[in-house]
Amino acid sequence: MSRGFRMKELDLRIYRAAARAALQTGVPVFTHLAVDVEPALAIFAEEGLALDRVLFGHADDGVSQGRVNQEAILAAGGRLGFDTFGYDLELPDPPFWGRHRDERLAHFLGLVRAGHVDRLLASADANCSPLGWPGVKGHTVNYLFEQLIPALHAADIDDDTIHRIFVTNPAGFLAIDR
């Protein structure tokens, strides 16, 4: 996604190519951002790509709030990536895309409780930090296990739902669909 929260011509061409590649290979499509989603939804529909094969990423980051049409994504059958868990404004030196921990969790829980659990994937966007990439101090994938899952339990989310979020949903989404 180009800067400025609007799809540019190059973005549109990349999304079209991604849809065509997904249809040819059976692999899913990950978008980097979930903003300005209407052109993406149109392209995927024109190309005949089922939206359950598309994850609209960073739907939970701090800078995208108010710009994500999650209702359109969910209504079309798409998936939302809550993939910046742990980039909290409570960190000592938070990233500009951070978000208050409680606000992000409330957003996620609202979608879970509204019956959208099968359309949600959750992660920490910290894949390179343990390998020495600079990343954000104090943020690792361990956040999911040390903070998020206990917070879901504290919010009365049962183990079956947590299993769906962290095991069933990713396995189904990442499976090659031919």
TrEMBL record:
Gene3D superfamilies, sorted: Metal-dependent hydrolases
Keywords: Hydrolase, Metal-binding
Superkingdom to which the source organism belongs: Bacteria
Family stated for the protein in its record: Belongs to the metallo-dependent hydrolases superfamily. Phosphotriesterase family.
Official protein name in the record: Phosphotriesterase
